[in-house]
Amino acid sequence: MYFDPALDLFPLLAASLASLCCGLLGNFLLLRKQSMMGDAISHSVLPGLVIAFLIASSRSPFVMLTGATIAGIVTVILVEVVKRFGKVEPGAAMGVVFSILFALGVLLIEQAAVRHIDLDADCVLHGQLETLVWFGAPESIMGLWSIETLQAFPRQVTTLAIMLILSLAFVIVLFKELRLAAFDPELATTLGFSSTSMHYLLMIFVAAATVASFEAVGSILVIAMLICPAATARLLTDRLRSQILVSLITATITAIVGYFAATIIPGWFDRDTVNAAGSITVVSGIILTLTILFSPRHGVLSRVIRRARVASSVAMDDLLATLYRNEEQGMNAMTRDEIANAIMRSNPEAILKRAIKNQRIRREGNTYVLTPEGTRTAEDIIRRHRLWEHYLVDKAGIAPDHVHGAAERLEHVTPVPPAGPQTDPHGKNIPS
Amino acid sequence: MSLRTANLLQSHSPRSIQDVTDELPSFGVVVETLTLQAGYNTSMVIVGTALLGLAAGIIGVFALLRKRSLMTDALSHATLPGITLAFLFAGFIGIESKSVPVLLVGATLSGVFGVVCVQLILRHTRLREDAAIGIVLSVFFGVGIVFLSYIQKNAPSDSGGLNHFIYGQAATMQAGDVVLMATIALAAMVATILFLKEFSIVCFNDAFARVDGWPVGSVDLIMMALVVLVTVAGLQAVGIILVVSMLIIPPVAARFWTDRLALLVVLSGLIGALSGYFGAGISALYPRKPAGAVIVLTAGVVFVLSLLLAPKRGVVAQVIRRFKVRLKIAGDHLLEHAFESNSSTLSSSTLSTVAQEQGWSKPFASVVRMHLKRNGMLRKSHSGCSEVTDAGMKRGARVSRNHTLWEQYLVSYADIAPSHVDWSVDKVEHVLSESLVNELESALLRRGVHVPENQGGS
Question: Buried-most residue among A33, A149, B16, B338 (CB within 10 A)?
Answer without folding.
Answer: B338
